[in-house]
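Interim report, section 4.2 (structural modelling).
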Amino acid sequence: MKRILLILLFSPVIIFAQDELIQLLNDDSNYKISSTFKGVKIVNSQSAELVSKGDLLFLIQHRFGPLNSGAYNLYGLDNAQVRFGLDYGLNDWFSIGMGRSSFLKTIDANTKIKLLSQSKGKDFFPFSIVWYSSVFFKQSIWKEMQGLDYLFSDQISYVHQLLVARKITSAFSLQLSPTLVHKNIVNQGEANDLLSVGLGARHKLTSKFSLNVEYFLQLNKENSINPLSLGVDIETGGHVFQLHLSNSAAMFERAFIHETNGNWSNGDIYFGFNISRVFTLKE
Amino acid sequence: MNKAITFILIFFVTNLYSQRFIDKKAEISFFSEALIEDISAKNNKVSVVYDVETKQLVFQLNISDFVFQKPLMQEHFNENYLESDRFPKASFSGIIGELNKISIAKGILKIHGESNEVKVKGSLVKSNDNVILDATFTIQLKDYNIKIPKIVIYNIAEEIEINVKAKLKEI
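Predicted structure of the assembly:
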């Protein structure tokens, strides 16, 4: 009897003590939400994801011709646009990159700055906020420019974006991207500054496979169509393969947001892919 | 009746005078030998508490605090293998033998939402005012439902070696 009483008395004490011990450890635990998106791009546009510190990302982007271009052009596969890009993480919150697109022979140089991270715990914050800016330089043939009143600065345009993203569940992420494109030179009657709002989403089906969608709503548009893209991400360790369909063949913001002429309902759909490879340079 | 009061008194007294040691910056690292490159990571934000009276030992850590050499490995570790969104913490809770060079801890190790009973041999010694804990043990990934796909460049081993180092101070 005594023994039972002893056990009865002590067992709750031990359980209580254990809970109390765990409580002693329950701290200021605070963690940042990572991997909102698989890649630095959703399809064409930037995601709120940055290249990690010391990592170099090599990105090959490829867009074929339109699917409705017929069997003679093998449904677009005979034509291709390509962009090569390199991005480097100077810090976990700061990356720089550059690339060149065959479309309009444009060179771009960009920077991405993580302003705030989505976090749980003590420093709770519901969104990740990233600033993205890029400058585009359209290459010209020197001969074409001679004799014309055409300045170097006329070849330049810019984009500035605020990427506001939230990983809503471990599988589903959503992003809103208010965007400003500035062109130094435009045709008569056109605006230099163009505003748009981007919407991007990612739904992870397995740990290595996800569905992506991306749309840009142009707030002041000039005869161009809003771009809509659907894609999948396939991760294989060091590489991420992104396959997609889009009504835009261009791969830099100025062109794919404001110079898209393809229409989904007409079958002006371009098949394309992005392949990224990460190299860790730091030791 | 008197006995019950004595028990309550004993309980309160032991509680008041129970000697406890704590470390909130203990280090847990793991190592896995793999074909292409070895994988190792370190977490030095581990919390440990030890109660001398009850011999209770409790560990707790955030999975996302493990730091790898390659950021991509860290991302895969959190996203694909340990699913730190769903299972943010790992813990050990058990009883450890006397303060000694060779001491055995028995308890429940919880990783990736899976709990297993483990028995770990290590040393628990007192030096000055601190209690120093050092242990190395191995775990099987399959015991914790951590699945490694076949096509992975790292070729991750099924067995992981874990090292624990803590320097606990009295509270």
